[in-house]
Every structure is written in structure tokens, then in C-alpha cells.
Amino acid sequence: MSESSGSSIRVLLADDHPLVRAGVRRVLESATRINVVGEADDGSATLDAVVRLAPDILVLDLSLPRVHGLEVLRRAKAVRPDLRVIVLTMHANREYVTKALQAGADSYLLKESAAQELLQAIEAVAGGRAFHSPAIQAQLTGWLRERQGGRSSGLDRLTTREREVLREIASGRSTKEIAAGLGIGARTVESHRASLMRKLDLHSVALLTQFALREGLLSP
Predict the structure, then answer these.
(1) Has residue 3 been placed in a domain?
(2) Of 16, 82, 112, 168, which one has the greatest count of Cβ atoms within 10 A?
(3) Which residues contact 28 (CB under 8 A, 6 or more apart)?
(4) Are residues 24 and 88 in the same domain?
């Protein structure tokens, strides 16, 4: 999904606490171009609403009853690959962060985040960009540094085409957009993505994006 500056952004809220949902709704409704199209209080209802309401963005708590948030994330992305997902949770530990990002989360925010961060995240992911709480961003940077260790960055092991695909992925473009822009098939794009993850040992779009930024392949 890529939103123009004047179009409405359809948002679905998923959290099992009514007060949290009410607070998040108030924050989002303070922005003129955000339209909260529905709410869900458990994982099953969330998956149903994703199909029924066709939101652009899902704001998702991980601690949902019936179907856990991580499973909701995986299933929602499978059903709606163009759906953007903002995880809004109290869990800051690495296990939750990495599992959510590997499952396809476009943004990872902590519930302690300021309201302005949530609005920034909505605008960012609507435009195809990643956005994370500062603490999560620092965690990603540290994890990338740990995984790299004393080795070379791995950029020299990439083909010219893989670098082009990496730049496009890190810019937030979808498989279809990358294929059209580079004049190659969607399956070829997926093959290059898999090769990038294997060569760099970075198994999420968030980490590939962090790597591309660090290596100067695109502007922050």
C-alpha cells in the first residue's frame, strides 16, 4: 500500500483492553486523514476484521486471547500481503521483537511511546517505510552489529542486481513495485530477497533495511 498525501488511511485496532483501544482511537482520530474503521478484542475477531473491513493498517497488540498476536500477524500478512502492521505492545525483549519483524511487522512500538510516535508510524508505514520506537531501533542496530561481528559487511558478496533489489526493499516497495521498476518478474524478486537474507544472514525486512542504511545504499 502506498498512500498519497491527501487520501484517507483506513486503520483497524486490535487490543483486548477497551481503555487502551479508546485511548489509541482518540489519538488517531486527532489526525484528519486517519479513519479508524473498526476494533477487535481478540485474535480471531482481528483476522475476521482484516478480511471483512480491508484496512490499510492494523495496529496490533501481541497479547491477544484466542489467537496470539504473532500468529495473527502471520495469518493477516498471508491473507493480505499489502496490509501494513504496526505492533503496539509492552514487550520490548528481543525474542518478541525478532519474531514480530520476521513475521512481517512494518513497525514495532512500545505502549510507553508518545502519541506522536504512533502518528508518525502510521504516516511512515502508509508510505511504505518502517518505523520503530527509539529503543527498538537501537536494539536492531545492536543486533546487526553483533551478527556482523568482526566480519566484512557482506556487501561485497552481493551481485549488482541483488544490491538494486536490496535498495528497493529498504525503500519500502512491494514485490510488484520492485518487479515493475526493475523490469523483472515477481518470482525473480522473491528469489533475490531469499538470496539476500541467506548471504547476509539477516532474515527480516527490518534488518535488511537497517543494513542498507548502514551501508549507505539509501538515505535515512
Answers:
(1) no
(2) 168
(3) 11, 13, 34, 36, 59, 118, 119, 122
(4) yes
Q: How many CB atoms lie within 10 A of CB 132?
A: 26
Residue 185 burial (10 A CB sphere; 0-12, 13-18, 19+) = exposed
In this structure, the answer to whether residues 66 and 128 fall within a common structural domain is yes
- What's the N-to-C CA distance of the chain in angstroms? 20
The domain boundary, picked from 141, 170, 195, lies at: 141
Residue by residue, pLDDT tens for the chain (220 residues) are 544 445 899 999 999 999 999 999 999 999 989 999 999 999 999 999 999 999 999 999 999 999 999 999 999 999 998 899 999 999 888 888 988 988 889 999 999 887 889 999 999 999 888 888 888 888 887 777 776 565 556 777 889 899 999 989 888 888 888 999 999 998 999 999 899 988 888 878 878 888 888 777 775 5
Do the Cβ atoms of 18 and 109 come closer than 8 Å? no
pTM of the complete model: 0.72
Task: Give the angle 22-70-190 at the CA atoms, nearest 5°.
Answer: 120
Domain range for 208: 151-213
Decide which of 141, 162, 197 is a domain's last residue: 141
- 89 and 37 share one domain: yes
